[in-house]
Design a protein that fits this description.
transmembrane, 71% helix, membrane, MHYT domain-containing protein, transmembrane helix, 4 strands, MHYT_dom, 282 residues, mainly alpha, 8 helices
């Protein structure tokens, strides 16, 4: 068996991977809390969609890829297959979205639905991890230790179930930060348990390895992570702003999904200005 390194750059990759998992989970839990407080199906769907991209895209897939940049087989050139890498990204977001909509669409979510959603989401995240590993190309054969694969599956299902439970229960910054930390540790634990299952047998007759060089993906992945976090933040900020406008608009109660026009926003600001001035005078 070939020698394998999981921490090629020391603690840089696991630390950055944990930060991705933590930040994605934190933003996702904040969004699910907003979804629970939304009285409109459209608003709730929007919040849950943002949460799915945050947890599945940033907290799980980007975490996985940042950790994968530290994976190396010193005696073999390693490349990534672009198609399998993109498939793994989809498997990181879609199962999380399904799980969040299962448990977050209604406020009275029964435990059976949380457990069922956790199993589905956990297996989807597991599929994301091993699809990403099947996208690794090197001059040899990759195999997996069955016992550690089973262990990683158990960790994935438990972590996903805990994440969905947190999504339906936690409120307040203290509990949300604690839950995001727990989710970050669980996601990283699942990843490195799965990585420990890898065994590589090199082939002396292997030809050139085709695919994308991992080093060329460092800058794009970093930019993608930054863009994802910024995009999620501004999407959430826009949704929060629209909801604040809705609360100040009486007719919005009959149609909570109606969009504000520029004229309505201007009139609302003009009406609010005298009130604010009166408050300062008093």
């Amino acid at each position: 068996m070939a020698e394998i390194h999981h921490f090629t750059y020391g603690w840089f990759n696991p630390v950055v991977a944990f930060l991705m998992a933590f930040l994605g989970s934190l933003l996702g839990l904040v969004c699910t809390a907003r979804a629970r407080d939304s009285h409109s199906p459209g608003r709730r769907a929007r919040w849950l969609g943002i949460a799915a991209v945050s947890i599945g895209g940033t907290g799980i897939w980007l975490m996985h890829f940042m950790a994968m940049l530290g994976f190396e087989v010193p005696d073999a050139a390693m490349r990534f297959d672009l198609t399998m890498t993109l498939v793994s990204m989809a498997l990181g977001v879609i199962p999380v979205a399904v799980g969040l909509f299962l448990v977050g669409w209604r406020n009275d979510t029964p435990p059976s639905r949380i457990i069922g959603g956790g199993v589905f989401t956990g297996l989807g995240v597991l599929g994301m991890h091993y699809t990403g590993m099947w996208g690794v190309r090197l001059g040899g054969e990759i195999s997996f230790d069955p016992a550690l694969v089973i262990a990683s599956a158990i960790v994935a299902v438990v972590a996903a179930t805990a994440a969905l439970w947190f999504a339906t229960t936690v409120r307040g910054w203290g509990p949300i930060i604690g839950a995001a930390t727990t989710m970050g540790v669980a996601v990283c634990g699942m990843h490195y348990t799965g990585m420990a299952a890898i065994e590589v047998k090199l082939s002396p007759m292997a030809g050139p390895v085709e695919g994308i060089n991992p080093f060329t993906m460092i800058v794009p992945i970093t930019l993608l992570a930054a863009a994802a976090l910024i995009g999620i933040f501004f999407s959430a900020l826009q949704a929060m702003t629209e909801e604040e406008f809705d609360r100040a608009r009486p007719e919005q109660k009959d149609n909570p999904d109606a969009a504000w026009t520029l004229r309505q926003v201007t009139l609302a600001a003009a009406m609010a200005a005298p009130t604010a001035e009166h408050t300062r005078v008093r």
